[in-house]
Amino acid sequence: VQTRAEGAVTASVDGDTRLATLTLQAPGPVNKIDVVLRDGLDGALAWAISQPGLRGIILASGHADFCVGGDVDRLFLERDPAVMMARVRALHACFLRLERCGVPVVAALAGSALGGGLELALACHRRVALGDPSVRLGLPEVTLGLMPGGGGTQRLPRLVGLGKALELVLQGTVVGPSQALQLGLVDDVQHTADEVLGAARDWLVSGPAAGQRWDLEGHAAPPPGPGTAEAHALVAEARERLQRKAAGTLHGPAGALEAMAEGHALPLDQGLDVEATHFVEVACGHQAKDMLRTLWYHRRAADKHAGLPSTVSLGVQENIHRVGILGAGMMGGALAWVACRAGYQVVLTDVRPGAREKAGQRFHALTEKRAGHLGEGGRAALAARLRVVADAADLAGCDLVVEAVFEDLPLKHAVTREVEPLLAPGGIWASNTSALPITELARASAHPDRFVGLHFFSPAEVMPLVEVVRGRATSDETLARALALCRRLGKTPIVVNDGYGFFTTRVFSRYLLEAADLVAEGHDPARVESAARAAGMAVPPLQVFDEVSLSLVRQATPHEEAFTGRRRDTAGFALVCKMVDELGRHGKAAGAGFYDYAEGKRQGLWPGLRDLATPRPGHATQGELGHRLLLAQAVEAVRALEEGVLQRPRDAEVGALLGIGFASCTGGPLSYLDRRGLPSVVAELDALAAGHAERHAVPTLLRDMAARGERFFADGVVPA
Ligand code: NAI
């Protein structure tokens, strides 16, 4: 065996088999696609193919993962399109040299291959993966505001067909090995890392052709063929899906779509050029930077609980084994499943037999839908962790109780008094309230230091965020244990201080009420809805107002005023009151709200709505309406920061994107303000405050920052 080290890649050639192995082993903990790896690959490849009688190449990794993707820091910092273009072209050229090196090349994927890492594997002629559930394969770039830039938009459609490729790339889907095999992303799955290498070797020894299958004589490419009606239809459908999902606001998936649509009918080299053009435009733009900052850096910091008390730093244990859930409604039912999936023993109770029964059925349905990969034994073990009980006394001995009964302060006090004494020694009480101050709730507690808010979002089995709320007396230890629980549940936490509506509910209710205000001011309700979508909001405000229910907001707002001293007596709130109190339009569940409903199905906006408005709309463009809706939320986020509800700006961004569907194209409410420029936002708010109401009053923090020329997030600096 002869070996040669070329920086991050080591090549070896077996004298007997004449097979080369190129092992990616970048100096850091993982392989990522950067200049060092690229140069290493080029050097190692050049050396290997210069060896006489070479029969094939295995591309493998010396790290646990195969390759986890691009160098995010470089992508985040680089703004010069010319520099970015040069790097992309160099990467394409490197992958092409590998693909066209003259001998067959196989990727041995004994660990995850993501983004640029999978694109490298796609430039090989065959892929063998390790059949371990920890192995993740996919092109998740669009979920971070980017698009594939290492040939993925060109090679994937040629490999698996345009339809599947569009789906995978535009959703950023990441799959395990067995699904990857089904999809055709990999060709073979083996049980051990040695078997992966063995299978790769066997394939090379069998004397396969040296080239991509789509270039081979007589190989039928997966349908549809380039330029066919079917191909056009797939592209049109994908375009429509993007439109439906984020109203075309996201540049990453849009660029990927165009690159796949154009490239499908072009020779590979030209297709790669098309991809490069779109990639550079996307990756150098503001949107990619703002989304990367929140969805990569800030989310990872939140997942690491950076800057927060931890069980390790405090020298304590999570010590939560049995979880009690009080209230088996919409939230409690789903939370029971989430906790069982994470391995906790769960006791679920509700006063209503119907709720208990329904929660049981729901548990079963969730298991069927989301735990198929566990196999029969795994699913049975999951079900065995749940105990549904009629008597709250059976919650005795739980290490944590999550209270998810109706949003009603006296009721929550009553159940706290009744059930808290049943906790195991040192047990924690958590409320899933969406707005009631934790300090108020904890008045009924004998141990307010072990009382915390765990605000989950619906549907809890899907939504990644937990807003952890610290009451005035909540201890560091309780917080650290709650965070450890969040980690086991697989949730991303933001930790906020107490205050009515915390952060997320407070900002979200501003969204709803700003929409009501716009309608009350005479703006066309349909335009308000479409403006919100066009601005990138996940759901239109009047639609979701109906789902939350007008009566809930109607009831909660006076509470909020009482708790906070903030006045909410806007024209929009008056309109909501009128709809609830005089017209009986309580929302979706009641069959009438901003929309009309027939058999629970949304029909159209209620025609009578326009008559409730002042018929004096100053004309506003769709962009202006959308901006008002985002601005209202962003200003509320600044207030939450100013009042100390938010401890750090990053939580505003993570919370808004992951919890309440704030326009992800902006990176978050504070990023949005930064991008608009704080001085111009202040001037605009001053003008609005003059015309409308105190709700547009500029927070002092914002005015001061604008005056000092500051921003919430420095541009061009990798967040700490
Ligand atoms: P829900 O109305 O679906 O369920 C509440 C359940 O609590 C009902 O099944 C009821 O029978 C039960 N319950 C009432 N009194 C009880 C008692 N004394 N002992 C045991 N069970 C009792 O309500 P949902 O939507 O699940 O909300 C629960 C809590 O979660 C509320 O505080 C709400 O603000 C909060 N929340 C709700 C979200 C949502 O999207 N629905 C999101 C985040 C938080």
Q: Can you walk through the features of this model?
A:
With 720 residues, the chain is of the alpha/beta class. The protein is built from 29 helices and 20 strands. The strands form 4 sheets. It has an 8-stranded mixed β-sheet, with helices on both faces. Strands 1-2-3-4-5-7-10 form a 7-stranded mixed β-sheet, sandwiched between helices. The protein has a 3-stranded mixed β-sheet with strand order 6-8-9. α14 crosses α15. The mean pLDDT is 96.
Highlighted features:
single chain; 720 residues; alpha/beta; 29 helices; globular; binds 1,4-dihydronicotinamide adenine dinucleotide
Give the topology.
Blueprint: E1 2-6, E2 9-13, E3 19-24, H1 35-49, E4 56-61, H2 72-77, H3 81-99, E5 105-109, E6 113-114, H4 116-122, E7 126-130, E8 137-138, H5 152-160, H6 162-171, E9 174-175, H7 177-183, E10 188-190, H8 193-205, H9 229-246, H10 251-263, H11 268-284, H12 286-303, H13 311-314, E11 322-326, H14 330-341, E12 345-349, H15 353-370, H16 375-384, E13 386-389, E14 400-403, H17 409-419, E15 428-431, H18 438-441, E16 451-456, E17 465-470, H19 476-489, E18 492-497, H20 504-520, H21 525-534, H22 541-548, H23 550-564, H24 571-581, E19 595-598, E20 601-605, H25 622-642, H26 649-659, H27 669-676, H28 678-691, H29 700-707
Helix pairs in contact: 1-3, 3-11, 4-5, 5-6, 6-9, 6-10, 9-10, 10-11, 12-26, 14-15, 20-22, 20-24, 20-25, 21-25, 23-24, 25-27, 28-29
Bound molecules: 1,4-dihydronicotinamide adenine dinucleotide.
1,4-dihydronicotinamide adenine dinucleotide binds at residues 326-332, 349-352, 355, 404-407, 411, 415, 432-434, 455-458.
